Every structure is written in structure tokens, then in C-alpha cells.
Automatic annotation (TrEMBL):
Taxonomic superkingdom: Bacteria
Modification type 4-aspartylphosphate: residues: 53
Keyword Disulfide bond tagged: no
UniProt lineage: Bacteria, Pseudomonadati, Pseudomonadota, Gammaproteobacteria, Alteromonadales
Protein name in UniProt: Sigma-54-dependent Fis family transcriptional regulator
Keywords noted in UniProt: ATP-binding, Nucleotide-binding, Phosphoprotein, Transcription, Transcription regulation
Segments forming domain Response regulatory: 4-123
SMART domains, sorted: AAA, REC
Amino acid sequence: MKKRILIADDDINIIASLKYVLAEQGFDIIAVTTPQSVLEHLEQQTVDLVLLDMNFQQDTTSGAEGLQLVSAVQRIDANIPVIVMTGWATIDIAVEAMQAGAKDFIQKPWNNERLLSAIKTQFALAQSNQMAERLNQQNKLLTGQTQLADENAIVAYSAKMKELMATLTDLAQSDMSILLSGSNGTGKSMLAAYVHSVSARAAHSFVPVNMGAIPESLFESEMFGHKKGAFTDAKENRIGRFEMAEQGTLFLDELANIPLAQQAKLLRVLEERKYEVVGSSKSHDADVRIISATNSDLLEQIANNQFRQDLYYRLNTVEIRVPSLAERVEDIPYLAQHFLQLFSVKYHRSCPALSDAALTKLQQYDWPGNIRELSHLMERLLFTSKKAVIDSQDIMLTANGERENSLDDPQLTMNEIEKVTLIKRLAFHRGNATETAKSLGFSRSGYYRRLAKYELD
């Protein structure tokens, strides 16, 4: 996408010369002749750099108008680099301009190489600062969430999974929206990360968002960002998820939990490929690839007027159903050993093996909690089994697919009891997050906060 430069000078000959030099370099140029026009343009559209004269018709020598304009630009958006120009160059004006927020100073008549070098330097610095800010915001918001996955991290020995991985690898080469459906705990988030990692967008950010954990009142702020002072608690600028995922992939997990009012706002962004930061009227381009996931029947929700049909069709250019763990029994031994090895490294413990009888027991269980349930079981076994080989009697499962009750253990802490209860209740409701939250008396956001607390999300 072309970089957009706003030129401000009251001399049309200067503007013509600058436009000729900069257009040849592939820049998109906007030219104005008054300070007021500069501010109006910045309020209405996105600009990557401002190149402005220090003197206009009211005052042609002191640079006062230019200094005031630099300060005004900074108040609108302190991240826009400003380069000032004047034919009345003095050290004092240069120092004052830099103190007001200008990033560089060019004397007229200018040298083209010096001018282009200054502009390109500011673009490079701005890009570096934006990336640092995005990473900082991502670290704050996404701690503990899905990391990028490569093909080696995904266990796929069964025919169903081999077919699924081949399909996703092909789809990754396109830019179409993908909807991943299937029960909770089937690994949809890891598969979304894999698609990103083998796509043309892999060099940019993969940003997962748990839509069920975002309070309705903060939806726009979380997704599109906000400006400092946009509302009572907006004490600093905040980057939204769309900006974090710029040129990368935005993963919308728990899609069915988006309230209807917010679905309309999301649909508008997906249709127009533009969004506004809360507290700003400027439109930003949304260059992101969308992958979404749900464990709900969206067609049923559409019939019940709980989900917008137009949003559904916008998000599922292609829909891929992820099989449950019970449908890929051949993968269970490999997954179980994979998790044991991961947790043994995490907790600095020796990694036990699984006996044939233990593997048979695992394969006979129906896994209502899917891969997530298997992962938690292997983590627990690493601590409860002190043997080099885990046998079938060490695995606390019953034949009808329900984990044996472990709440009677008098050594459990309150947090451990709450975690076990969450796991058991989620398994009872077959992974249905809405029913699980309702049965426990939690709000949707409260339920997801507890999942995150116990690393169950």
C-alpha cells in the first residue's frame, strides 16, 4: 500500500515541485495551502507523514505559524512524523520545531536526495515504533494464548486428520475466510495458527481473540482500539486487535458468543475493509485474513435470530469441521505421549511411558472434553504416577466415559476444586460453553475469565 504524504505550503510552485519529486518515488500525495486545511485532512483521513512549510501568508519569516501547526498535528496524532521546511532557516527555528514535535528539518531550496532520505528514515522509524507498540500490546493482551504452530506440533496420523491437514495447507495459500467448526477442545485454535504459519502472511502477526471473553460494552475498544480520553477509563491510547493483526491473521474464537449488536459492527468492517478507532473519525484499512471458530450450530442460531446470516456467509467462504478425538482414535497414543513429553520438559520431570493396557484404556474412552481433556489428564498423571511406566489402573477413567470423582480428595485446595468442577461440568455438557456457564451461575465473561485462570481456554 502506498505511503500517503500530506504537503502543506502556500506556494503552489513549491507544491508542484514536491509532488513531482515524491510521486516519482511512488508516494500518494495530498497538497494543501493553509494550516486549517492540514488539520481538516488529518481529522478525516489517515496520513503517513506531514511535510509542511514553517511560514504561511500571515507571517512569512518568524516560523510561528509553522510551530503552532506542528503542535496541533501532534495533538491530533502524535505518531505522525512531521518534517518542516523553510527558506528562512535558523538554528533557533530548527530547535523550536523539534521541541514542538517535528522529526526533521529541511532548508529550502532543498536537495532531493536529502529530502528523500529524511522521508524514508521517518517511515522506517515509524514502522519500527508501530511494531514495538503492537508487540507490547500483544504481550499484555495475549499472554497465555495460542502460540504459532508448525506442522510438526500437530499430531495427525489418522486418515481424518491427514485429510484435514492437506485441506488446510491448500487453503492457507489463499486469502479466503475460514470457519472452523467442531466441539470444544478439538484443537481449532492450533489449526488456525498452523494455517497462518504456512500462509503468505506468516511474517506478520497471528492475533487470537476469545470473543466470549470480551464484555459487550468494550467490544469496539478491544477490536478497533481507542484514543486517550475517548471515554472515562481511556487513560491512554490502545491498539485494537485489527491493528495488531495488520497484514497478518485475526482468529475469532468462540464466534457464536458475539452479541447481535456487535455482529453488525464486525460485519461492516469485513465488508468495507475499514474501521475507526474509538474517539477518532479517521478510517483505517483492515488488511487482515479472518479465521474463525465455533462449537455452536450457527445455522440453528440464525434460525433463532441469534446470529446474522450475512455475517455467517461473510465468515465462511469455506467451512471446515474439525473431528472430535473419538473420531481419530489412532491419534490418541501419539497425542498422549506428546503431552507427557511436553509437561515433563515444562516441570523438569522424567517422562514416563504408557503401557499397552493404558493405551487401550485411553482409546476406549470417548473423550467428551477432546484433546484438552487428554492434555489435562496427562499433566495430572505426570504428578500422580511415580512409575516409569503408566499402567491402566493409574488412569482415572470409567468405561462409560466419565472421569472418576476426584473432589473427595481432602488435600485439594479451593482453586483445585474449582478447576476440577469446571472440567467435570464442561465434560458433562459435552463442551457447550453456554450451558456450562449457565449451570454454574457464571456470566459469559466471568466463565471465560475462570477458564483463563486455570489455563483451560
